[in-house]
Amino acid sequence: MSEKKCEREKYLFLSAHLRAKEAKMLTAEKASRLLDAGSFEEAAKQLCECGYEDMSGMSVSEISEALNTRRRVMLKDIANMLPDKEIADIFRIKYDYHNAKVLIKAEAMNSERFDLLSCAGRMSPEKIATAYREENFIFCPDVLAKAMMDAKRVLNRSENPQLADFILDKACYGELTETAKALNSKFIKGYVELLIDCANLKSIVRCLRMGKNADFMRGALIPGGSIYTERIAVLNTPEAIASLFSVTKLKDAAAKGAGAVSGGRMTAFELACDNAVMSYLKGAKLVSYGEAPVVAYLAAFESELTAVRMILTGLKANIAPDTIRERLRDFYA
C-alpha cells in the first residue's frame, strides 16, 4: 500500500471513529436537561450518558481534575491515531503557554500554584516547572524556551505579569501559525487565523474600555490574523471596531464588541466570539475525512469540557440554571 493511500485509510478510520463519538457528545438539548435535573448530583449522574465518569460525589477541584484528565487522555488517544501527529499540537501548544503563565504569575505573587498547571501540553507540568525554576530550557521547544526567558526577564524588570503574558501570547500564536503552515491545511490555517482575530478583537475591546493608548494596544495584539495589527491598534471608537471587522467571520461579534466598549455586556460579546469559531468548525461536518473533522472534533470536545465544567460547578454553587444557560456557548453536535 502506498504511503498516500495508507494515510487516506488512517484518516477514513479516524473520521469514522470520531463521527461515532460525536453521537454521544453534549448537545443543547442534553445540556438543558442537565440544567433542569433539579440538583448537581442528578445532573452529574445524567452526564454519564455522554461517556463521563460519575462526578456526583466530587468537589469542585476534583471535577476540574477529572475533566483535565479526560482532555489529556483524549488528546493522547487521537494523537496516536493521527497520520500527522502535529495536528494534536494545535491543541497542546496552548497548554504549554498556560503553564508558563501560571509559573510567571506564581513568581510575581511569590506563591506556588502547581494545582493550576495543565497536563495536556507537549511537556509535562513537572518538566516545564523545573525548566523555569532552574532557567534551563534545553528540553523545551525553541520558541517556548525563548518566550519563557524573555517573559521572565520582563517580569524581573517591570514586575508586571501582564507584559510577560503579552510575550507568551505572541509566541503561542506564532507557534500555532507555523504549525498550521507546516500542515498545509486550508481548514487549519483558517481556524488559527480566526483564533487570532478573536484574540485581537477581544484585546481591542478591553483596551478601549480601559482607556489604553495605541502603544499599549500594539503590545497586546498578535500578528497572523486576517487584519493587520496596525490597523487594529489605531482604532479609537466603537464604530471603527464594527466597521473594520465587518468583512470577517466576526462581524456579529464585533457589533457586540462595539456595544461592550460603550458600556454593554462583555459576556454577550465574548460568547459571540466563541460562537463564531464554532460556526466555522461546523463546516467540517460537510467533509468526509481528513484533518478538518479531526480538528473540529478536538475543538468541539474542548468546548464541551468548558460547558460541562460550567454546568456542574454552577449547579454545585447553587447558581440559577437560567443564569448558567445564558452563558453556554453553541454546541457542535
Your description of this structure?
It is a single chain. The protein is 70% helix and 0% strand. It has helices at 3-22, 28-35, 40-46, 60-81, 86-108, 125-134, 142-158, 161-183, 186-210, 214-220, 229-233, 238-244, 251-261, 266-281, 291-316, 321-327. The chain is globular and about 50 Å long. The protein starts with a helix and ends in a 6-residue tail after the last helix. The model has no long low-confidence stretch (mean pLDDT 91).
Defining traits:
mainly alpha, 70% helix
Number of strands: 0
Low-confidence stretches: none
Strand content: under 5%
- Helical fraction: over 70%
Structural class by SSE content: mainly alpha
Largest sheet: none
Instruction: Spell out the helices and strands N to C.
Output: HHHHHHHHHHHHHHHH
Mean pLDDT, to the nearest integer, reads: 91
Shape: globular
| Spatial gap, N to C terminus | 35 Å
Rg over C-alpha atoms, rounded to the nearest angstrom:
20 Å
Specify the number of helices. Answer: 16
